[in-house]
Amino acid sequence: MFREEASWLANLIYSLEPNNVFPMLNIGSSNKKFREQEQPWIDDLLFKPARQKGYSVIHTDMKNDLGVDLVGDLCDRAFLQKLSEMNIKSVLCSNLLEHLTNREEICKIISSIIPNGGYIFVTVPYEYPYHRDPIDTMFRPNIQELSNLFPNCKIVSGEIVAGGYLAQSTTFTPVIYTLAMFIRLIFPIYQPLRWFDSLRYALWLFRDISVSCVLLEKVNDL
Prior knowledge:
Layout: H1 3-13, E1 24-27, H2 32-38, H3 40-53, E2 57-61, E3 70-71, H4 77-84, E4 90-94, H5 103-113, E5 119-127, H6 143-147, E6 153-165, H7 174-185, H8 192-202, E7 208-218
């Protein structure tokens, strides 16, 4: 998640009536280390204010790790039943849909989790290199294409948020990040598949990156 993306989301989340947002379900949350150390702006801007105000955020992922509150698959009915008992008012789905081959199914499930009047905060890269996690379908939607995945929702806000250039998007300085990338590229024999991923990133180091960000409100059940 870009810093600018986290800021865009935070501005909207904390401008809304809290009772209509929380409890919030953070889908594909990754772990505590990712949110607080690798990309610390995620926790600083999005989740730390919620903790300080006593608002509930439930982090869910398919991988059991520190900082994951619920481990499960959205396609598992038993897991969905558990979620239905948690009075979830909104869902955060950030940088996940480009990694799915069944995104239409997942988006329908996401919509089913929240009540009418509930919110979905969803982001997907718009200008960004191929990145496997473990795959990347290269889904790079604009605002309308992204919102079309949720036909029972209306757009409250949508923007293609610029993130500067790729070398600025990590916790490292651009010089250090570029140097590390250069060192990686001179050793293609080490993890060759990952080397090709690094090459793709290297070609984007000083290109502008951006992300499609949409806030949706559920208006009716499908």
